[in-house]
């Protein structure tokens, strides 16, 4: 899933750049006249930050737990079976058989860089979608206040309604561009998340039923599976909520 998201971002980098620029210009050039409009814009702007912190922390925790469990597992395998050698946390092309503990430790230290790469590659695309969608949702909410202000004002009614219609049309176009840019990635996210949650849940249930005694590695793997399930369900929930507000606002 991480490679798919990185590939989609690479292929659609020009479209994403234009969409970012257009939404940024729209949000910055918009005139927020009333106190309600300003508060609405500020409140919606804070939401992506909370999402980014929560999802980045949960995904980072899951990756660290996976890395630690694989390192511990590698040491245990080499300890009980010397002929097999050490197994690296992330499967990469090995030019030599790793049978020395110091060499294994150096390879593990090198593979620490994989943790931020996986976290940023997986979380970054979701954060982009949530950030852009919430900015568009905020403009829809502000537009509703502008409509109420124009309806209650007798001065320049026709001119005000014309401006509101043009703003609404522009928001609809931004929503369509947002949908066309992220529709495939959201489908891949939902399908992959469903499969991942099912596999992780099955592993959690079977590992507890088959083993009476749980080792340190198994405990770390169970914690990793539980945290990744929470992160995936949280991401799916935020995507669904963003889509719901885009449809109903």
Written description of the protein model:
The protein has 249 residues and is an all-alpha fold. The chain has one domain (1-248). The protein has helices at residues 2-11, 13-29, 35-80, 101-110, 114-152, 157-210, 216-248. Helix 2 (13-29) crosses helix 6, helix 3 packs antiparallel against helix 7 and helix 5 runs antiparallel to helix 6. The protein starts with a helix and ends with a helix. The model has no long low-confidence stretch (mean pLDDT 75). GO terms for molecular function: odorant binding; olfactory receptor activity.
Shape: elongated
Number of helices, counting only DSSP H or I runs of 4 residues or more? 7
Largest sheet, if any? none
What string, H for helix and E for strand, traces the elements in order? HHHHHHH
Annotation, overall tally of beta strands: 0
Report the end-to-end length measured between terminal Cα atoms: 30 Å
| Poorly predicted segments | none
> How many structural units, i.e. domains?
1
Beta content: under 5%
Question: What's the arrangement of secondary structure elements?
Answer:
Blueprint: H1 2-11, H2 13-29, H3 35-80, H4 101-110, H5 114-152, H6 157-210, H7 216-248
